[in-house]
Write a structure and sequence with these properties.
The complex is a heterodimer of chains A (301) and B (418). With 301 residues, chain A is an alpha/beta fold. Chain A has two domains: 192 residues, HUPs (Rossmann fold), CATH 3.40.50; 93 residues, no CATH class. Chain A is 31% helix and 16% strand. Chain A is built from eight helices and ten strands. Chain A has a six-stranded mixed beta sheet with strand order 3-2-1-4-6-5, sandwiched between helices. A four-stranded antiparallel beta sheet of chain A has the order 8-7-9-10, with no helix packed on it. In chain A, a hairpin with a 2-residue loop joins strand 7 and strand 8. In chain A, helix 1 crosses helix 2 and helix 6 runs antiparallel to helix 7. Chain A is globular, with a radius of gyration of 19 Å. Chain B folds into three domains: 212 residues, P-loop containing nucleotide triphosphate hydrolases (Rossmann fold, 3-Layer(aba) Sandwich); 84 residues, Elongation Factor Tu (Ef-tu), domain 3; 104 residues, Translation factors (Elongation Factor Tu (Ef-tu), domain 3), CATH 2.40.30. The longest helix of chain B is centred in the middle third of the chain and has 15 residues. Chain B has 418 residues and is α+β, with helices and mostly antiparallel strands. The two termini of chain B are 43 Å apart. Chain B has seven helices and 22 strands. In chain B, the strands form four sheets. A six-stranded mixed beta sheet of chain B has the order 2-3-1-4-5-6, with helices on both faces. Classes of the chains: A alpha/beta (301), B alpha+beta (418). Chains A and B meet through helix 1, helix 2 and helix 6 of A and helix 2, helix 3, strand 2, strand 3 and helix 4 of B. The structure holds guanosine-5'-diphosphate (GDP) and magnesium ion. The site of magnesium ion has 5 residues of chain B, from helix 1.
Amino acid sequence: MSKYYLNYLDELESEAIYILREVWAQFQNPVILFSGGKDSILVTHLARKAFYPSKIPFPLLHVDTGHNFPETIQFRDELIEALGVQLIVGSVQESIDTGRVAEEKGKNATRNALQITTLLDAIESNKIDCAIGGGRRDEEKARAKERFFSHRDDFGQWDPKNQRPELWNLLNGKHFEGEHFRAFPISNWTEMDVWNYIKREDIKIPSLYLAHQREVVWRNDSWIPVSEFLKLDENEKIESKKIRFRTLGDITITGGIESDADTLEKIVVEVAAMKQTERGNRSDDKRSETAMEDRKRQGYF
Amino acid sequence: MEIDKNQLLRFTTAGSVDDGKSTLIGRLLYDSKAIFEDQLEAIENTSRKKGHEGVDLALFTDGLRDEREQGITIDVAYRYFTTPKRKFIIADTPGHIQYTRNMVTGASTANAALILIDARHGVIEQTKRHAFIASLLQIPHIIVCINKMDLVDYSEEVYEKIINQFEEFSSKLYVKDIQFLPISALDGDNVVNRSKNMDWYKGAPLLYTLETMHISSDINKIDARFPVQTVLRPQREGFIDYRGYAGRVASGIFRPGDDVVVLPSGFTSKIKGIDTMDGSLEEVFAPMSVAISLEDDIDISRGDMIVKENNQPKALQEFDAMLCWFNNSPARPRAKYTIVHTSNEQKAMIKEVVYKIDINTYAREEEDKELKMNDIARISIRTTRPLMVDEYRDNRLTGSFVLIDDATHETVAAGMIV
Ligand SMILES: Nc1nc2c(ncn2[C@@H]2O[C@H](COP(=O)(O)OP(=O)(O)O)[C@@H](O)[C@H]2O)c(=O)[nH]1
Ligand SMILES: [Mg+2]
């Protein structure tokens, strides 16, 4: 066989770099949406590669729910320092305090939906015309139809039935004042690809992804970490388990799994044998069959 | 698992409504264990609500709310699965004529197309359309899956008859590699596992065919083309004078020391270095993303193309192309559009519709020249400045373009240069 072909990880990397460079070339004021999760860490790593030997030429935007794993914030700040790029923070707490949104009530309340307003406000006030996200098409069925360049109207909304066709590698980022785009450079990666690549590149990730002994509560079929925001029910009890997280979100609803995987090698093996999707542990997606599509239409990540 | 060598294969599926595309994809994903338990559970629930017995694997690909409600696929949905040999990306596109544009979109990046035929109905008008689009978009490999063999008693005769029907019209098309396969997507015969019901079929099942298909030669390695996306000028310590031209190799091979020309300016230079964050490279080929630096200080910007001195594309301001119209509003005669070709952008005007093609019969239509949604036509186009083009047949990336309507910013057409 010819030696002139790429393996699939190199091809995915090259595609992502191409998309990131298109964003930079086609938009005035792009940002990377940085959540502290592995997908946004990966996108940031790919952006370093895309612009090397230059620094990443645009800021990172963190939509801060206020319900963070403390490690996430520390990780974020260290990364920003190392990259030498600007950080913009959009605060959900501030959106609540200023009356832009109202906190959900009840035991399963989350700040997930509230992030939409904070995100759109941050996009507007910072005049951002493209927000680069770590969304992947394999995550969820509504995401399976996302384009690399995804148009949002001036209310920040997505219209899945009126998307611009993307042929070959030609991406159309043209937009009117007030509209913006979301760009998804790792659209074609699966969870398995992400882990294989993180391992191959030895990318630094928060220790939350690795199994550790943690204080947790069994709720909604997963282990919810104990935090200052967690209100215990009468029949719930705190236990200590060896836990790791497959995704990181709002700490009050992100469930961990019992695991012994405390190295990247072990995670790759574990993910390969996984029987549940990573979003299976997030109660926000369990609300209805079309929960993600509904949130995305409104302007979610 | 030797993932270091595994390649990526992209394929599309085409077939008319109910030929079994969604079921086939569901079957591939299910049998290669790419469906997770919670996804399966969700499908089982929906199947039950709809009164199906068992699991309807088709539900796995029918993603958006409207589609689930109507039970049809209305847009391109992407699916992923991996085997120990390859990673696969499926573009699942609906087959109905009003979705021609989606099929064209899915086909534009595909290495292979699966064309489904219902064994009970044989070749129908839509089959011809699907084969036409696959050949128009120059998908290198076509696999014709004759599905629902369980409903024709797994008959070899029926299978052979359909192959003959297909070959009768496909001889008029330009296709590099075509194969036929008798399958039952519902039961899984010849999908992942060899069928026990069709001893007469000696070929490999579908998955094996996809896993072993030779795709390294699908990319043009002769004509070196490097469209510049953006210029990297770090202006920081260690790189004060560095100027890197960032881009993705469209075709061919580049090495340091190569004599190159920058188009359209025509300035010549030599490649000084090919750089990535992981170090400098001795050789690059498609589809690698790198930064190229040159020996000489010349003015290069986005939209320029670096090529080899002894092998250059044509600089054309007027050319013919096969165009597929994507938009609800028809093409406006002699109106200006933005043409996007590689990383270059110009204004363009459709000078003439030479003929439209009836994609069901392949007949040329020279009277009605209005380009409406999903129409395919040969057109003459004129641009404000020359574009550096190759014929689509030789080079998918430097031979293709899209048109954007400046009034709406929508992508209204895709073209292939002839
Ligand atoms: N008997 C039989 N039925 C099939 C087969 N493949 C698909 N079907 C059925 O044909 C119908 C349409 O299938 P679907 O996958 O939705 O077709 P699509 O419109 O091409 O996506 C469904 O009821 C399937 O169960 C097959 O191989 N044998
Ligand atoms: Mg279908």
